[in-house]
Amino acid sequence: MRRIIYFSKDDKAYHDMLNKIDAFFKENKHKLTSDSINDILELFHIIQYLENGFTHSSWTKDETEVYKNEVKNFKKIISSFFTSLAENQIINFFSDIDYDYLKTFWLMLNKHNVYKNLSIETLKQLFREKKFSLSHVLYCKLIVDYFDVVVCDLIMSDEQNAEILLSYFEADKDREETEMFFPKSLTLFKREELILNYLNQDDVNINFVRLIAKSKDSENLKISDKTRLKARKLSEHLNNEILNRDDIISIRMGASISEDQEDLKIITKKEEEVIYSYSKKRLLENTDAISLFKNFKTVFEYLDFQGCVDFVVRDVESESLERVFVRSKNEFFINEVYRRRSMIGSLNFEIYKVFLDSIDVSLEYVLDNFVNKYLNEKFNINQLKLNLPRIESTYLEKIRTLVPEFESLLDQYKLYVEDDFVDFELKNFSTKSTKISNIPSLLDRKYVYPVNETEYQKLSYNFFNNMSYLFDYKKYHKKYQNFYQVLLYEVVNVEEFKDNRREYLQHFLENNYLKLDEDGIIRVVNKERLIVIGYLRNFEVMSYWHYPKIIRDEIDVMAESKIVNFSNKLFTKAEQEYFDFYLNNRYSNGFWLRNKYVHATNSHDESEQESDYKILLRLFVLLVLKIEDDLNLAMNIIVKSKININ
After folding, report:
1. Which of 10, 133, 306, 509 has its CA 20 to 30 A from that of 347?
2. pLDDT at 579 over 90
3. Is residue 498 scored above 80 in pLDDT?
4. How confident is residue 71, by pLDDT bands cut at 50, 70 and 90?
């Protein structure tokens, strides 16, 4: 039977362990004397639960105090046990330690200075034990410092240890990680040597090879361009081997223009193939330049219902396996939903260009007209200026025109928001490029983000996660995705909640999130708050003025309680990351389009330049759509305020 194990203060699966701790005390096991190493280490894990505020739901206040006082005695028992350990006892005990307690064992040797009783030979003997794990030692600063050279030699003795180094310093983490310590003897030179040795072996993990290729220099790892290039080539080779396997499933997507289709858009799904078909007849109904541009939003859905770019990465759309894959903390996280949406966006862009070419209209002309004429006239700006490349230019020439024009439009809009007009003399005087994250909105309350992690996460997890203790997965998972949906569409009686689930539900009743009517039916107390939580969970942001007043009022209340806060930027955080992924060197796996073409480090392959130009055009379309959305919202607020409409 598995012993009591403390995982972390954020662990949500603690109920079973608290039941074991309850049984431990009720059966008076704490009063028994034992020399078993595992019994001693188990006391440490019990201490962690009680000192981090975990208590069993059945304990009275007096019982809780009694058990917390026992913790002091546990500490004395642990200290007495370890400080009296002799060198031979450590060797004899090691093979008996439960796997879940091995890390704790090393931490206790570290904390109680027992490591000083070990000779170098004895330490090396422990290193050779079947149960030994290098990572357990690296959590122990005193041991690593004391046996600096020995630990360094141990790390360098096995190329696979490069994975520990890369995982700790380069891999992205979903949660806070316990600090590791590395010997001073393990210099930056030796660290790269270990990584290079790793790349030279036959059996490598492609995930770690990708980490090396996408790494950025830091005080802990400095990898030469030569080593990174070697990793990139190896990564491409391994990736091609995977793609050529017989068990790989391919998903095909396509887009077409139909001459006789009545519906504007038809999506056909067949096995592993998805085809988007658009009606040329319907597209031809409005071919003025303004309508042609607005099709990017109304037909191709480049922005979602709240005026946000729909191609961004959302964490909630990531599968569990995608979250655990090794990836660099320096890279732009790409999940499968993002890949699919990006592919759809690219296909729609290509097929729309085919349509525009068929009516002898260039996308450059459509963009030029929308900014220079439509935006200036409709919103009485008369100052935004856009100069797009000539059609006959080469792709390299077009890009070298488009990149500065993109930055120019950003600067112009920033000046317009700040000063209510575009001061071109000031713009031309400035030599600094404007960051995407610094472009302001006309609205102070443009976007809403969750900030109170405790309150937000509690509501988000329990009402909108299918793993919530409130959600009866076995009963409802085929019909609903979460507990909130069950409350909306089903009559849920409190009698459905038994034992621990009833106790868990009680918290939400006592804190006025839920209430019981006279028949014991569970009702939501504040529907608007849960609507806000639901939108924030699904989209990670809300565009404040796209929602009705009843929702905005609730957002205001939540802001006063510091559950959410506001941003006054033109782009959401996810949109900023999306643009930086393509334009700048913020991410190690990014396209770096701005930097490549500004510094002339771009490819000379014309097909690649064509692809880059089309990406930049799509980004330009998104930028203009975001500016129009911002201007529209500001105008609507002004109009409604004049006639007193909420």
Report:
1. 306
2. yes
3. yes
4. confident
pLDDT of residue 252: 84
Contacts of 526 (CB under 8 A, 6+ apart): 512, 513, 554
Which tokens go with 365?
Answer: 């002309």
Which helix (H) or strand (E) element contains residue 112?
Answer: none
The string of pLDDT tens digits covering residues 303-356 is 999 999 999 999 888 876 666 567 778 888 888 899 999 999 999 999 999 999
For 348-373, b where at least 16 C-beta lie within 10 A, e where not — what string? Answer: bbebbeebbeeeebebbbbbebbbbe
Distance in angstroms (rounded) separating the CA atoms of residues 203 and 386: 54
pLDDT at residue 560 is higher than 90: yes
* 613, 360 Cβ separation under 8 angstroms: no
Share of the chain above pLDDT 90, in %: 70
Task: Check whether 364 has a pLDDT greater than 70.
Answer: yes
Q: How far is CA 324 from CA 51, 173, 175, 364, 511, in A?
A: 29, 9, 11, 42, 34
Please give the radius of gyration of the chain, using alpha carbons only, rounded to the nearest integer.
Answer: 30
In terms of phi and psi (left: phi > 0; alpha: psi -120 to 50; beta: otherwise), the region of 379 is: alpha
Query: Can you count the helices (H) and strands (E) in the chain?
Result: 30, 8
81-111 burial, b if ≥16 CB within 10 A, otherwise e?
A: bbeebeeeebeebbeebbebbbbbbbbbbbe
Give the residue among 273, 254, 414, 259 at the shortest CA–CA distance from 348.
254
Q: 579 versus 316: which is more confidently predicted? A: 579
Strand partners, 171: 328
Cβ atoms of 181 and 138 closer than 8 Å: yes
Quote the mean pLDDT of the chain. Answer: 90
**Position 552, amino acid:** R
Which tokens sit at 367?
Answer: 């963009």
β-pair partners for 275 = 254, 268
How far is the C-alpha of 646 from the C-alpha of 635, rounded, in Å?
A: 14
Three-state DSSP at 183 gives coil
Q: Measured between alpha carbons, how far apart are the two ends of the chain, in Å?
A: 62
Q: How far apart are CA 460 and CA 534, in angstroms?
A: 7
Q: Residue 388, by phi and psi: left (phi above 0), alpha (psi -120 to 50) or beta?
A: beta
pLDDT at 95 exceeding the cut of 70: yes
Collapsed DSSP state (helix, strand, coil) of residue 524: strand
Mean of pLDDT values over 28-35: 80
CB 286 within 8 A of CB 265: no
Q: For the chain, percent helix, then strand, then coil, each to nearest 5?
A: 60, 5, 35
Token pair, residue 206, equals 């492609």
* Average pLDDT of span 558-572: 96
| CB 267 within 8 Å of CB 273 | no
Per-residue pLDDT at 214: 86
Q: Is 263 left (phi over 0), alpha (psi -120 to 50) or beta?
A: beta
